[in-house]
Amino acid sequence: MSLNILHEGSVRVETTLGEESLALYTLEGTNLTPGIFALLEGMPYPYTIRAKTSCVISTYVMNQPNAKKTLTQKVSVGVMAVRTMLKEIGELYKRILAIRGLSSKVQMTADNLGVVYYILNPSIFSDIQPGAPITRDETIIDPVIRTIRNNLAGFYEHGGMLPDEPNTSFLEESHGEFFEKDYPETVEWSDSSFHFIRKILAVNPKISQALFEADPTLLQNAAESYVTTYRELFDILNREAGELKDSLNFLFHGDQSLIEKFNLTLDLFSTGYSTISATTLLPITEWVSKKSQTHLEEFKQIFGSQYSGLTGGLDILEQKQSELNKKYAHELGAKKDQDSASASGISAGIDLASLKNELLNSASQILNFSQVDPESVKEFSTLMVKLKSFKNPLDPEPDNRKIRRTITKTYWEVYKKSFTKWLAAGKKAPKAVELMLRYGYFDESLLEDGHLVELVQRLDQGRYNGNVPVHLGTDWLEKIYAKESPTSVDELGQTFFEKLKLDLKDSGIKSDKDIPPSYDTPDARLAYEIASMYEPNCRLTSGSVASHFPILTKYHITIPLEKCFVTKESVQKAIQDILNVDYTAFNREVIYRNEDIGIKNEFVQKSIIPDLILVPSIGPKIMMWQDLSIFRGAGSKESKGRITIPHFITGDLKTFLFEAIAAFRWELCKNILGPDWNNVGIPSITADYTDYVQFYKKSKDLSPELKEKISGEFKRFRTDRDKFANDYSLWIKYEAEGVQRLNRVVRAIFYRHIPFHKTIREKVSAQPAFAELHNRFKNVRNRQHKELENKYKKYMDASGALPKELHENLQFYEV
């Protein structure tokens, strides 16, 4: 109910979090109007304004209408008010970002620690069986145990793979894609009017003053806009602060906190009731202690005071940790020595000392081999030294990310030049170069000795005889270089030809054949493929854009390297396992012609497995890059798609392939059907599923509770394709086993368009949820089979045999 003008001094704006008062930001200077937004809004001020130093203030009692009138009648006061609100909004947004950043880190720590607690104490969930689905349970009273179980359910459902023994690398990495969380570090906020007025206020004060005097309503509109903006940010801050408090309480507050769970684990260990070894448990609890202190220190930096929710558990943990470290110092020291020397016994026939000598100064060997620009090498080497000095080079902090981006740019130039030289030399190069081309290796000091041995062991993978087209990344680039395979599309969907046509737009190029030979060279195709497909997929398959780094380091490796190594054989097996469930995964209708026996156009089903390319990266993501490799002309609809797989996959290969194959199905259907891809008059998986997403709230087959649940689930996904991929994974992983995880509407759509293999259909058809769907499917397929059988009689030869293509198509429709 008053306008307050600060003439001298500084004030602190504070908020309450629970029962404690915390500083948000400080305002200091002359001619400021702190808190005016409440007067203009006509609502009580939500914060406390406390004098930080001696202040001189003028106070004018007034109500909201008088305040608005004052802004237009006294332009100097109006400008003062708008400038102050601008400053307050900026400070408030900065504080929100700081709170969001800390909240994300605390949440990630809590989720990772919860899973590690389960690994250390698997008996807390005695019903969980290896490889079996985990049910979520909202009835568990202990909030920490409830969250751990529900996180575990999501973790296994989305292909997560737990280490046999917990380690700090696992704790440092984000596993949000498995927990169904993305741990955002920023809060999206965009207000065009805010930025417009800020620009006006940024110009010469005389100019802006004259502008506002000429049209005082500009000030009033700006003030009203800022009041709305401040209220929005206030609500966001309340939400973010509440989430931070909940996360911190989850970790530290009360007898049921996660810290107390680890105290209990240490107690059991100390009294001999635990089978966990000191060398496994103590490094984990030491990490817990240090990470907790880091979070609490950041809280203090943000709010200017300590987090008040500590109940002594952390102090007790640190005390026990100190005592146990002294008691088991010998074992811990021996374990470190054993780890450093263990690689020598990993594999017979590998001389570790000789290998380390061969890989000594790998970075220099690779840079010398590539012969890149000396200036680039100088900057690259300086940044690598700086990056290696960080505690964790993959830390998503802005400075680290900037250094990694600069290194990455040079790295890919080195990679391209090394590949060309390696190819020209008959595929011969120093071992360090071979390891880089295959795995993204670069510096021996960034990996453990055991990792080096594992990588060298795997270089020669032997002959592959599978029927699934799996390619090593280097083999794929060689195919592109030799023009044996067409180049891929880039991230914007542009082809090599389209980009070249754009670069040479005045040259009159209209088709691929018009490209001058001087532009369509093997080197040009290779450079395009690396920049447009290879490099983006190494980044995308790593899972985390914030911590992406193309050079393989020990910080990437959260589970043993041999467990996440992907071979051609493992891809072949995973694809075959999926086809044993979803036998039409790669099917499409193509035109079969045979003029000799009078067949002009017959549509037949054909399975065309995409090219699967192993790229030099490590991560939890498989990318469906293209559904077709030729986009125009004859044979385009029969061309192979492209799926990229990281050479080291930090999770379950088969589960990750579900998502990629779902995306492949979706995009291929859209491509084949063209404009009719979402036309429900022409039934297809995309049309029917899109219709379900759009109208599920009106469905008579779904209960109100189920509709609410679906609505909550859909919020996790950005596109309809993502929603479909999630349901597809549940269809293949659970529904095929008779475990019902989908609603009846989706189950009906999938049974029609994504039928199970015959053996699975016969098994699930006995269940009431599938019986009617199975009968309907069988009737439709029998009718289609009968129609084709009658149609194909005219194509039989004298012995009654059909051409292979027609015979296989007829078999496809047999039930």
Explain what the structure shows:
This is cAMP-binding protein. It comes from Leptospira kobayashii. By secondary structure, the protein is an alpha+beta fold. Helix content is 55%, strand content 9%. The chain is built from 32 helices and 11 strands. The strands form 4 sheets. The chain has a 4-stranded mixed sheet. Helix 2 crosses helix 3 (75-120) and helix 20 runs antiparallel to helix 22. It is globular. It starts with a strand and ends with a helix. The model is unreliable at 343-348 (pLDDT under 50).
Uncertain parts: 343-348
Pairing-aware structural class of the strands and helices?
alpha+beta
Biggest beta sheet summary: 4 strands, mixed
Query: Taking strands numbered 1, 2, ... along the chain, how are they ordered across the largest sheet?
Result: 6-9-11-10
Mean pLDDT: 89
How much helicity do the residues have?
40-55%
**Form type:** globular
Number of strands: 11
Radius of gyration: 32 Å
C-alpha termini separation: 79 Å
Number of helices, counting only DSSP H or I runs of 4 residues or more: 32
Q: What is the strand content?
A: 5-15%
Organism: Leptospira kobayashii
Protein name: cAMP-binding protein
